[in-house]
Automatic annotation (TrEMBL):
Any GO molecular function: choline monooxygenase activity
CDD domains: RHO_alpha_C_CMO-like
Annotated gene: LOC111464984
Pathway noted in the entry: Amine and polyamine biosynthesis; betaine biosynthesis via choline pathway; betaine aldehyde from choline (monooxygenase route): step 1/1
Cofactor: Fe cation; [2Fe-2S] cluster
Name the record gives this protein: Choline monooxygenase, chloroplastic
UniProt xrefs under PANTHER family: CHOLINE MONOOXYGENASE, CHLOROPLASTIC
The protein's role, per its UniProt record: Catalyzes the first step of the osmoprotectant glycine betaine synthesis.
Protein's organism: Cucurbita moschata (Winter crookneck squash)
């Protein structure tokens, strides 16, 4: 991996048993019934949660600031507000481009109450849709793989990879039915480097023409080029995925990631022995923070083992982490499952010269797994402490926890918009 660029500046803010086939149709996005597709709530649903938002003051300097109250991590109404204001607005990382290498490739996912499917159509265009049949709301697809079309497992309604309705079974006698109004509901989708992004904001037009340069600016701000220069790109080979269901609020995992290496010497002694923790530094951008640390292991020529000469840890608000070290890149996607539960998806990528070194890969994954287990224990312990009546709020360690403070300030900004 290229050495981390230095001197980074800070930036803020048919008839019976027959089907109707619709192969020849001019598909358009649904318009007449769009009001039924809304998942955005009005402020009246969030009166109590908005009171909790005001318990954190983002304008207090880091040295004097207190952390958000424990209610931000435990209250169900606050969690609902986050889904609406944080996750259902803006660009979100949902996968990687290698999942869509060929036409007919697809993958599915869920974020809050939004089920989605992303695919590459016959013309090699990446598309995304709500993963919901327009007949009686069954989920259309699950997992990932290849499909030439999406066939509803409930009643057999069939959709093309462009979202158009191709076949509606047993609807003889139906009236006031326009096939063009019953295609899959599209979502804006984009790619940046090795990643696939979605935007769940219902205020965006379903006909949005995505400018990927503009998306990169919205998602990464002024550090997009910096990440590319430091090896965050599509040249890496996918190795594997690991998933962890953790009994903690999604922000607990993010806070743990953003403490500037504070917990590393206490909780990750094996990892700490391979890092020069005194070199740890953090740089803040608009919606990204980048932590970096030099490798501390004994080197033999250019061989620094798994971590390499320098490790880079990029947090992309609100819930995506990119870790670049040695020949490796792994990403952590934190998906909220409830006020006290989250799913963390780890995807591992490797530089091409190392992809056949099975021994190196196995040992690296085992070392990474050990760190993840240690973090899970920490995060679940923190969640229990947050639910204790003894804890209301905490303080920041100013020399190391500026990225965490930045994260909380961005949250407050989103939640009050």
């Amino acid at each position: 991996m290229a050495a981390l660029t230095k001197h980074i500046h800070t930036h803020f803010f048919q008839p019976l048993f027959a089907s109707f086939n619709f192969q020849s149709r001019s598909y358009r996005s649904p318009t007449r019934i769009s009001s039924t597709l809304s998942f955005r709530n009005s402020d009246s649903h969030f009166i109590e949660a908005l009171k909790l938002v005001d318990e954190f003051d983002p304008e207090i300097p880091l040295e004097k600031a207190v952390t958000p109250p424990s209610s931000w991590y435990t209250d169900p109404s606050f969690f609902a507000l986050e889904l609406d204001r944080v996750f259902h607005r803006g660009w979100q990382a949902v996968g990687y481009v290698e999942q869509l290498k060929d036409p007919h490739d697809f993958f599915t996912g869920r974020l809050g109450n939004v089920e989605y499917v992303v695919c590459k159509d016959n013309n090699k265009k990446v598309r995304a849709f709500h993963n919901v049949c327009r007949h009686h709301a069954s989920l259309l697809a699950s997992g990932c793989g290849k499909k030439s079309c999406f066939v509803c497992p409930y009643h057999g309604w069939t959709y093309g990879l462009d979202g158009g309705l191709l076949k509606a079974t047993r609807i003889n006698g139906i009236q006031n039915f326009d096939v063009n109004d019953f295609g899959l509901v599209p979502l804006p989708v984009a790619t940046w480097g090795p990643f696939v992004l979605l935007n769940l904001d219902e205020k965006l037009s379903s006909e949005l023409v995505v400018d990927e340069d503009e998306v990169a600016h919205e998602w990464l701000g002024s550090c997009a080029d910096l990440l590319s220069l430091n090896g965050v790109d599509a040249s890496l080979s996918f190795v594997c995925r690991r998933e962890y269901t953790i009994e903690c609020n999604w922000k607990v995992f993010c806070d743990n990631y953003l403490d500037g290496g504070y917990h590393v010497p206490y909780a990750h002694k094996g990892l700490a022995s391979n890092l020069k923790l005194e070199s740890y530094s953090t740089e803040i951008f608009e919606a990204v923070s980048i932590q970096s640390c030099k490798g501390g292991g004994e080197s033999k020529g250019d061989d620094y083992g798994r971590l390499g000469p320098e490790a880079l840890y990029a947090f992309v608000y609100p819930n995506f982490m990119i870790n670049r070290y040695g020949p490796w890149m792994d990403t952590n996607l934190v998906l909220p499952l409830g006020p006290r539960k989250c799913l963390v998806v780890f995807d591992y990528f490797l530089e091409t010269p190392f992809k056949n070194d099975e021994s190196f890969i196995q040992q690296s994954l085992e070392d990474s797994e050990s760190v993840q287990i240690e973090d899970i224990i920490l995060c679940e312990g923190v969640q229990k402490g947050l639910e204790s009546p003894a804890y209301k709020f905490g303080r920041y360690a100013p020399s190391v926890e500026n990225a965490m403070h930045h994260f909380h300030r961005l949250l407050h900004l989103n939640l009050t918009k």
